[in-house]
Amino acid sequence: MKIAIVGGGPGGYEAALVAADLGAEVTVIDRAGLGGACVLWDCVPSKTLCSTAEVATWLEAAPTLGLTRAKPEVDVDLAVVFERVFLLATAQSRDVEKKVDQAGVTILKGHGRFTGPRSLHVEGDGVDVDVEADAILIATGSSPRVLPTAQPDGERILTGRDVYNLRAVPEHLIVVGSGASGAEFTHAFNRLGARVTLVSSRAHVLPHEDTDAAIVLEEVFTRRGVEIIKQARATAARRSGDGVVVELADGRTIAGSHALITVGQVPNSDDLDLQTAGVRTNDAGAIPIDRVSRTNVPHIYAAGDVTGSNMLASVAAMQGRIAMWHALGQAVQPFRDDEVAATVFTDPEIATAGISEPAAGERGLAIDVIKQPFATNARAKMVGLSDGFVKLVVAAHSRAVLGGTIVAPHASDLILPVSVAVHARLSVDQLAQAFSIYPSFGGSIQEAARRLMS
Hints:
By secondary structure, the protein is an alpha/beta fold. Helix content is about 30%, strand content about 25%.
């Protein structure tokens, strides 16, 4: 069976590996580099930047742990920081390409567009070919949303991809948008020494996360000097002399040295000639799919950001795998939104898995919820952690673990046992009775589970 995959990000390359392993003849069409925007410009670079910021936080906390330095300040060489960011991103892209190539997948470096329901034309540097396929996966990702009244110039008005062109830490960075990307960049640049103002159109930062988690992060941001302007919608950003001015809907203005616009992502679907294949998109340009990643055309699938929902690398990868299992006739479990795990890489990190407390309430589910602060955790005391908590959401009658939230350093690693419990439909009693290490942050997960045991 011939499989064509348009896009080499997590949805595309993970799908390619599955299809090749199942014996399909696979072609991946990609014009940016394997790993896609996730590896090259978005996820890997931003999380690498956050890792650098984490070190700055530890250095700041060193005196409280009995470690003193002759020079208390940290000098930040942003050019070196970003050089490392892109070295790591490029290396990761090469690693992905090598893995895909070794699996026997044909990689065409160019732009693919549909010429029919089962055919694509690919053009690129030295590439000008037609590709026929029995099944096609669209995994072209997304791009930063650009506001007509806040056009990025790559110097003062920036998107999340432009920030890596900076050669020095901004004097005063105005971050517009308080979702995951806005919160992560706020954290990173605050830790690297910038004055940061965060403009949020909602009552809390991270409006789609657990409210208790958002409140903890707001408190940490405020304590570290971030100015948060809530329920304020930015309507425009413009250059003014050597800086920028951000205009708010209520008439206020904020002056700063740079403005970073993080107001979401737009699916990359408008240059694929989808109409030629009969593939439908919605008003936002996203490609609707079912739970096995099919579009309205049964042999054409889509995965990841181009579908317009759950814009996470892990979701893209799972949707891509599911698409190939289904296309190649394997038994497959349909995608479950209720199992998704995600992390906001701030300090502390905010990790979630499964159904949140607000989502359970909206569905009218009978639940029990426990919130276990890290303040009582022995390991947390050792490292001086006073912020954060573990929250578990459990079905009131079956006692199954439905979801959870962890706010802590490296919560992205700590969330795994909760994610496994949600996926395997474990009871809270089973989670409570597993071994944990003492002392450990993970011990608070087990303690929360014990408090909910029937």
